[in-house]
Design brief:
Layout (H helix, E strand, L loop, with lengths): L1 E5 L4 H14 L4 E8 L6 H29 L6 E8 L2 H12 L3 E6 L12 H9 L4 E5 L9 E5 L12 H9 L3 E8 L6 H14 L4 E8 L3 H12 L3 E4 L5 H6 L6 H6 L4 E3 L4
Parallel strand pairs: 1-2, 1-4, 2-3, 4-5, 6-7, 6-9, 7-8, 9-10
Antiparallel strand pairs: 5-10
Length: 272
């Protein structure tokens, strides 16, 4: 599997690197990428400033590779580095095409941390504009296991879409228990309807312990994150383009109460 890890050389980005290696194992290919661009400037200084930023990016990537191989004890890791001129979204999309990326893993913080902003603006932009699964890892979260996974989405948006192979294999490897949660605001979703909608997912999740659950609540945000908190969920999975809840969660205006709940990684599966 080809795993892309964007980095800004922060502690949060370093934690995402550690998480990716621990969660997926050393037998994968890892691409560490730094995107750089100059701030607003006059035309006369643009070229020289870009050269300076490129040199700084390359040097910092060398330091990060040294850190990964020596400090994290991965001397033989299949790791390459890339310094790309441009913003994070365009740079990641460039890597997707060039390196056949299966998954993007990135650290998440807000302007003042998760307690103030649920997911950082860069991560939220990537999730909404990159057609690849994105795993967003909180800055202080350490991977230990993948025991309980909460798949939060409306069943009716998922039945015709295949789940990524790496995701299914990951669940099997860690013998994960998956809860597929639907929040029904109307209270009119019949058991028969829910059963019909779950058939395709049942087939895809064969061999993985899972169950479907529907809860009634007016506040979908609160219901999903509250469920995750009380159930001991170790990862939340969703399909952002089909989830109004997820798109609301990306906004800095989300309440601090909900932000406190989001202390586990979120896997955003791509869907056209």
């Amino acid at each position: 599997m080809n795993i892309l890890i964007p980095t800004d050389f922060s502690d949060t980005a370093r934690n995402a690197i550690s998480f990716a290696i621990a969660a997926f194992g050393k037998d994968n290919r890892f691409i560490l990428m730094n995107a750089y661009e100059e701030p607003s400037s006059t035309t006369s200084s643009m070229i020289s400033l870009r050269d300076i930023l490129h040199e700084s990016s390359v040097d910092s990537l060398k330091d990060e590779e040294q850190y990964i191989r020596v400090e994290l004890h991965n001397p033989d890791l299949n790791l390459t580095t890339k310094s790309i001129y441009g913003d994070a979204i365009s740079s990641i999309n460039s890597c997707l095409q060039q390196d056949d990326i299966d998954l993007v893993v990135m650290g998440t913080t807000g302007a003042t941390g998760l307690k103030e902003v649920t997911i950082g603006s860069v991560a939220s932009g990537v999730i909404n504009n990159v057609k690849c699964p994105i795993l967003a890892v909180p800055g202080d979260f350490k991977f230990t296991s993948l025991g309980k996974v909460l798949f939060a989405s409306d069943l009716r948006t998922l039945t015709n879409n295949e789940l990524p192979t790496f995701f299914l294999e990951w669940l099997k490897e860690h013998e994960s228990k998956v809860t597929l949660l639907t929040v029904d605001k109307s209270g009119k979703m019949e058991d028969e309807e829910a059963g019909e909608q779950s058939d395709a997912l049942n087939a895809q999740l064969e061999g993985i312990e899972h169950h479907f659950e529907t809860i009634q609540a007016n506040d979908i945000d609160d219901a999903i994150l509250g469920y995750a908190a009380v159930s001991g969920t170790q990862m939340i999975v969703t399909v952002p383009r089909k989830s109004s809840w997820f798109n609301r969660l990306l906004k800095p205006s989300v309440s601090k109460k909900l932000a406190h709940h989001l202390e586990v990684p979120m896997l955003a599966l791509s869907q056209d």
